[in-house]
Amino acid sequence: MAALDLFGRRWSLRILWELREGPLGFRPLQKRCDDMSSSVMRQRLTELLDAQVIHQLPDSRYELTPLGQEARHALNPLARWAERWAATIDPQGADPTDDQSASAVSHPDTVDDGTPDRDSAD
Fold first, then answer.
1. The pLDDT of residue 106 is above 90
2. Which whole-number Å values give the CA distances from 103 to 32, 38, 58, 98, 106, in the listed order?
3. Cα-flanking dihedrals φ and ψ of residue 63, to 5°?
4. pLDDT band at residue 118 under the 50/70/90 scheme
5. CA 108 to chain centre
6. 57 φ, ψ to 5°?
7. Please, what is the end-to-end C-alpha distance for the chain in angstroms?
8. Which of 1, 24, 37, 102 is within CB 3.0–4.6 Å of 29 for a Cys-Cys bond?
């Protein structure tokens, strides 16, 4: 429940998403998050830092920790479901050229279609 609470807070998942390709400083991250307010950004970054999902580099940029990377991979099936859901709700609005990086990332406990590997020891 704690993870759902953390990731359910506005902007938390967006920050995780924007850090997926590598470290970002405060201002570039804020820009990628649609210029969210600085106070909300600081609050979310502090929460994610405290949860050890991200950490701050010596040059002040933020990046995902191994736990953050794992969380991102764990959320990939939800991202794929959201794409299917969006296509069902608005078939005309579905854009097959949208960023597919969430569905293209493999996870060691899944087979190619993203379903759980039955041999996985979870």
1. no
2. 21, 31, 32, 11, 8
3. -145, 160
4. very low
5. 17
6. -80, 165
7. 19
8. 24
Residue 115's pLDDT band (cuts 50, 70, 90): very low
Upper half-sphere CA count for residue 37 (Cβ side, 13 Å): 4
**How would DSSP label each residue in 36-83?**
--HHHHHHHHHHHHHTTSEEE-TTS-EEE-HHHHHHHHHHHHHHHHHH
User: What letter represents residue 79's amino acid?
Assistant: A
Which tokens go with 14? 């967006």
The C-alpha atoms of residue 73 and residue 36 are separated, in whole angstroms, by: 25
State the burial class of residue 58 (Cβ atoms within 10 Å of its Cβ: 0-12, 13-18, 19+). exposed
Question: CA-CA distance, 82 to 88, in Å (whole number)?
Answer: 10
Contact 107, 73 (CB under 8 A): yes
